[in-house]
Amino acid sequence: MTKPSVGLIGIGSMGWPMGLRIRQGGFPLTVYDAVPGRADEFAKAADAKPAKTCGALARDCDIVITMLPTSREVGQVLSGADGVLQTLRKDAIVIEMSSGLPSRTREFAVEVKAKGGILIDGPVSGGVPRAKTGDLAIMVGGEPAVIERVRPVLETMGTTITRVGDVGTAHAMKALNNLVSAGGFLIGVEALLIGKKFGIDSEVMVDILNASSGMNNSTQKKFKQYVLSRSFNAGFGLDLMVKDLGIALELSRETATPVPFAALCRELWAAAAVTLGKGQDHTAMTKLSERLAGFEL
Questions:
Q1: Mind giving me the DSSP string for 99-127?
Q2: Closest Cα to residue 104, out of 297, 243, 259, 267?
Q3: What is the pTM (predicted TM-score) of this model?
Q4: Quick one: which of 149, 184, 190, 280 has the fewest CB in 10 Å?
Q5: Which residues have a catalytic role annotated?
Q6: CA–CA–CA angle 148, 153, 156 (5° rounding)
């Protein structure tokens, strides 16, 4: 049976390894990126086909995946000049895998449906390391039958594929997941600072947290690897974390849910983004806590 052709828009730090996994799964792949030459570079590395425009990509593909920074860029590649909606195939499926605004995602779904296609949202969690190994957790919003149609493609990139609900719910869940992740990271860093000031070795603290009830994703996969090493290069931008926390807070407002701790968490991360400047990895948030404490871990 012939495998459906896939188009991937966005060959960034996450899109590149995700695209490699799709090709390794045997799917014909066409790629586009706004950075000149990047699609050509990927195509040579992965035996894929580069596209000059998003419209040219959509013309060739049964499934179109967007992996972009925000919903603003998704709107541009869908509806802009030479965009996906200009040439989208009838019954083609668009998988919006960026971390987008849930309400905007639902609007995109209406626009895609008007052109004869179907849009579902499928944001991911796991970062660059799990993108490389194909072990991402993928949250999906859409009709079950549609999700099943694209499951073989999703399974090349992730080992946990969970339907959250209707279109938009997956993007809501991704923002809430990152809210929990951000809170765990921040409180963990503050605990390490307290412990170091008291005279406890930071690596010993991480080991004990990982064997105790204080264990979380940051203690397991970030503190030794990116914080204590001072590399601060986990592959997920500080500005993107602040964006996702803003989405979570917007959801709290839409649902009239009081979230005082979440609001404070978002403000601290936003303060770090302003203080540290553009281009920082999210693990560099540590530096703001260190400045407040007056010493480094």
A1: ---HHHHHHHHHHHHHTT-EEEE--EESH
A2: 243
A3: 0.91
A4: 190
A5: 174
A6: 125
